[in-house]
Amino acid sequence: MSAMTPASTTRSLYMVLSPAALPYARLAIETLWKHSAEPVHLHLVTDTVADRAALTILMEALPLKPQNRWSVFAENDLAEREVERFARYPNLRAFRQGHPCWRKITDPLLLAEPGEEMILLDPDIYFPNRFTFEATPAAGLLLMWQEPNCLVPPRLVRAAMTAGVPLAHHVDIGVAHWRGTADLDWLDWFIGLLGGAALPAHILHVEAIVWSALAMKMGGGYLNPQSWHCWRDTARTRVMRRLMAKNVDLLRSQQWSQIKCFHAGGEAKWWLPDAVEAGVFGYPCEFVQQTAVRPLVELTPVAYEREQKMKRILRRMGYYSLFKPAWKSGNP
User: Fold this and answer.
1) Is the distance from CB of 45 to CB of 14 less than 8 angstroms?
2) Is residue 254 part of a domain?
3) Strand pairing of 220-222 and 294-295?
4) End-to-end Cα, the chain, rounded Å
5) How many domains does the chain have?
């Protein structure tokens, strides 16, 4: 897998963003602006014309380095491009009308030129240090890594595996690099295999299944998990919350001097403003060197069923009721 992104190149970034996410997404954009050592062009994709206006007001108010640029698009702004680019792909078009998070896959393909770099960002990320993005490969896909997998619902995972479609394990899509070189005929077929227009639009994690299949189809790897770090709601953190530990204090345990980007998944994204106010992140370090990419790991049917069995056992034991996930905890 060769990499090609000259250091002087403006990095092309894409974020699907609703104004409702601004309490934490504002921090993602502010720290990107402040700490990126490279010029960037951030493309924001939102839902309505009113949302586009709200995000435009935000972006115009932020201090902007001369080398950085931004653009904001509403969903309908891309309708004509959708008709042109996805004319032969009914499942891709239906997928774009599903959960807004799924448009992280479709909408950059409508905005970017074929083969152009696309670095996709979730709004619940934070850049604590001065940093550079990793090189985007000429072919293949780079994803973040997390210890569990977020591939749900199980029936769709099993549908892919039954059809013989390999899936990558440990996939997190807080940050993803690619050049849109996927076989769109195959991608449309795979989305149709999962259900096409009948996919459950309320389950955002369907997106992760598609990324997981794309990674194994195209090749690629995982961004270094120390540098591109995902919050994990571990058994230890659930016990600490049970003992009334403050959520902000849970973030203090992260190795902030080693992190280029922190993906505050789940409830942790709502802790970020308080963590900033409490000085959790300290003074930024310099972290501009490239970090090694790790090889993809396939999620085998045997491993997946083993994980599902363990979850069922823990559920019967009452573990999830006693130690609630962060998003069900009321601990401030």
Assistant:
1) yes
2) yes
3) antiparallel
4) 44
5) 1
Q: What is the pLDDT along the chain (332 residues), one digit of tens a residue?
A: 444 444 458 999 999 999 999 999 999 999 999 999 999 999 999 999 999 999 999 999 998 888 999 999 999 999 999 999 999 999 999 999 999 999 999 999 999 998 999 999 999 999 999 999 999 999 999 999 998 788 999 999 999 999 999 999 999 999 999 998 889 999 999 999 999 999 999 999 999 999 999 999 999 999 999 999 999 876 566 656 655 568 888 898 889 999 999 999 888 999 999 999 999 998 899 999 999 999 999 999 999 999 988 878 767 776 555 545 544 333 33
Question: What are the helix (H) ranges across the chain?
Answer: 22-35, 49-61, 79-85, 90-96, 103-111, 154-162, 184-194, 206-218, 235-242, 247-252, 272-277, 301-316, 319-322
Separation CA 33–CA 17 (nearest Å): 16
Domain range for 134 is 11-328
Distance (Å, rounded) from C-alpha 23 to C-alpha 159?
37
**2 inside domain:** no
The pTM of this model reads 0.92
CATH number at residue 19: 3.90.550
176 in Cβ contact with 142 (< 8 Å): yes
Instruction: Determine whether 323 is exposed, middle or buried from the number of CB atoms within 10 Å of its CB (0-12, 13-18, 19+).
Output: middle
Domain assignment of residue 3, yes or no: no
In 3D, which of 80, 83, 93, 75 has the Cα closest to residue 188?
93
1 falls within a domain: no
